[in-house]
Amino acid sequence: MSNGPWTDEENDLIVADYFAMLADDLAGRPYNKAEHRRALLPLLNGRSEGSVE
Question: What is the DSSP letter of 30?
């Protein structure tokens, strides 16, 4: 598990995913936050689910 500072790449991934969910929300499309989180975790250098939540 990574306890260090978030990298620019990790931050870019999190922000891009947030805006993807926001776009779905604004368009009235259903989305699942848990699925988004699970898809991101392997890309985030060992971050915990709680740190992404």
Answer: -
Q: Is 42 left (phi over 0), alpha (psi -120 to 50) or beta?
A: alpha
Residues making up the chain, counted from first to last: 53
CA distance 26 to 48: 28
pLDDT in tens, 1-48: 677 999 999 999 999 999 999 999 999 999 999 999 999 999 999 999
Residue 17: domain span: 8-52
Can you read off the two tokens belonging to residue 43?
A: 């890309």
| Residue corresponding to tokens 């915990």 | 48
Question: How many structural domains comprise the chain?
Answer: 1
Angle formed at CA 45 by CA 39 and CA 51, multiple of 5 degrees: 70
